[in-house]
Design goal:
The chain is α/β, with parallel strands linked by helices. It has one domain: Undecaprenyl pyrophosphate synthetase, CATH 3.40.1180.10. The chain has helices at about 5-10, 25-30, 35-60, 80-100, 115-130, 145-165, 175-180, 225-235, and strands spanning about 20, 65-70, 105-110, 135-145, 190-195, 210-215. It has a six-stranded parallel β-sheet with strand order 3-4-2-1-5-6, sandwiched between helices. Helix 5 (about 115-130) links the parallel strand 3 (about 105-110) and strand 4. Helix 4 runs parallel beside helix 5. Bound molecules: farnesyl diphosphate (FPP). Farnesyl diphosphate binds near residues 26 and 88.
């Protein structure tokens, strides 16, 4: 099937609202070429840019969450961590105007506090400048961990419970969900993980309860428009039951 036919087929069928991507394999991509790991991340940032542009151009879905840095990634060599932060900062700086013009809203989910000042200020500025956009909400999970997010929600709820006299039995799924850092985003319909590993690596946990999972061996820098369309086509062939009996 040609690329254009695949695009048309995918666009003619129900699409997910929210796609999450664990962008794995940058290090292996670089190693296979005898390059430093950071070169793999640099190439990975170009892939992220290309995928975001494609999603917006074709209007494929309204929410995209990319896992860029986990709470566990601090254990990597300092040079790699610093390099990743510098890369993210220049990515956000360079793309700010394009985000504004193309209707992209940026949201960075994760603990901002330990991030370098320059990166934190850039995030705040781009978030503020793109606040009114709604064509694509691009959420970047940065210094993010699924367990951190749940714990933070529990702590915030306990604090709130004191001042608004909230009893334990009044805490239902919807209320709890609203306290998560992704509170304003819908649950993820499709999760794509590149790089061949079959795990969640402490990405969104609560939000993935009924998500369709798609794993591919492609390393993130090699992932492209066609690979995304194949993942969407696979998703369209799934029967989502949400725990009920269907058919
Ligand atoms: C995992 O590959 C990837 C990361 C920890 C970083 C992801 C970051 C980017 C793609 C760069 C910038 C992001 C945006 C949104 C512009 P790995 O290093 O674990 O790869 P390996 O498993 O092959 O070692």
């Amino acid at each position: 099937m040609s690329w254009e036919a695949l695009l048309e087929e995918v666009k003619s069928r129900p699409l997910p609202r929210h796609v999450g991507i664990i962008m794995d394999g940058n290090g292996r991509w670089a190693k296979a070429r005898g390059l430093p790991r950071l070169e793999g991340h640099r190439q990975g940032a170009l892939t992220a840019e290309r995928i975001v542009r494609f999603v917006v151009k074709e209007g494929l879905f309204s929410y995209l969450t990319l896992f860029a840095f986990s709470t566990e990634n601090w254990a990597r060599p300092k040079r790699e961590v610093d390099g990743l932060f510098a890369l993210l900062e220049s990515f956000l700086r360079e793309k700010a105007e394009e985000f504004i013009d193309s209707g992209i809203r940026l949201l960075v989910v994760g603990d901002h506090r330990p991030l370098p000042d320059g990166l934190r200020e850039t995030i705040e500025e781009v978030e503020r400048r793109t606040e009114g956009n709604d064509r694509l909400t691009l959420a970047i999970a940065l210094n993010f961990g699924g367990r951190w997010a749940i714990l933070r929600a529990v702590r915030d709820l306990l604090r709130a419970a004191r001042s608004i006299a909230l009893g334990p039995d009044e805490v239902g799924e919807d209320l709890f969900r609203a306290y998560l850092p992704t509170g304003e985003l819908p649950d993820i319909d499709l999760l794509i993980r590149t790089g061949g590993r079959l795990r969640l690596s402490n990405f969104l946990l609560w939000e993935l309860a009924y998500t369709e999972l798609y794993f591919t061996d492609a390393l993130w820098p090699d992932f492209d428009e066609e690979a995304l369309l194949l993942a969407l086509k696979d998703f369209q062939g799934r029967e989502r039951s949400f725990g009920k009996v269907v058919g």
